[in-house]
Amino acid sequence: MNRTEDPEEKIVVAARRVFVEKGYENASMSDIAAAAGINRTALHYYFRAKDKIFQAVFGSLIGPFIPKVQDILHSDAPFFDKMDRLIDEYFEVFSQNPFLPRFVMNESGRDVRHLVEVAESIGFRTYISTLVELLETEMAAGRIRRLPVHVVFLTFIGQVMFPFLSRNLICLILEIDSDRGAFEDILTECKRTVSCQMRLLLDKDSPLVVPGV
């Protein structure tokens, strides 16, 4: 191991690859040690349990995202400006970590309670609570269309995650070379489209007819 390299960071990077490939349940401490190029004794010196490594991995991916989106939600900007900035942040974190959406989906299918517990440990629950409060306040004030909050969440998350989940399929169908920047151009267009669709859904003056509303 390079002495100038942070051992914990090297372990977290290696564990990230292992968790993405095998999932939390199927990944072993031996797998992580081998990927990091160390023995299990050295691994246990830094992380006593696999759960602690998983928390460190998830924290390294999502941790910097939480304060950014909290700052956006607590800002004095108009609601739709906040929404556009949230979309930017989601696309940014997924662009930097394109495996993250699939990783989250896979872990949700394996053990969603464990995933939620880890997410809560790095402040994700606080972010969600703040977002729900913002939506309910804006709806109550009549500034946006009144909709069930879960409908807004499902629509938003589906639109920001699907382009990354479907990257390989889209590139194959449209015969796009994903390594030459063409897909990044698609993501730029998708981001603008997501913004338009969310405005169409939530703008109380939009012509969209929402069943049951």
Please characterize this protein's 3D structure:
- This protein has helices at 7-26, 29-36, 40-46, 50-62, 65-74, 79-96, 100-121, 124-140, 149-165, 167-173, 182-202.
- It is mostly helical and 213 residues long.
- The model has no long low-confidence stretch (mean pLDDT 90).
- The longest helix is centred in the middle third of the chain and has 22 residues, at 100-121.
- The chain is globular and about 60 Å long.
- It has 2 domains: 7-49, Homeodomain-like (Arc Repressor Mutant, subunit A), CATH 1.10.10.60; 63-202, Orthogonal Bundle (Tetracycline Repressor, domain 2).
- The protein is built from 11 helices and no strands.
- The protein starts with 6 loop residues before the first helix and ends in an 11-residue tail after the last helix.
- Helix 1 (7-26) packs antiparallel against helix 2 (29-36) and helix 4 packs across helix 7.
The N- and C-terminal alpha carbons lie at a distance of: 60 Å
Report the helical percentage.
over 70%
- Count of strand segments: 0
The average pLDDT value, as a whole number, equals 90
What's the CATH class label of the largest domain?
Mainly Alpha
List SSEs in N-to-C order.
HHHHHHHHHHH
- Classify the fold: give the CATH topology of the largest domain: Tetracycline Repressor, domain 2
What keywords describe this structure?
213 residues; mainly alpha; Arc Repressor Mutant, subunit A; Tetracycline Repressor, domain 2; 11 helices; globular
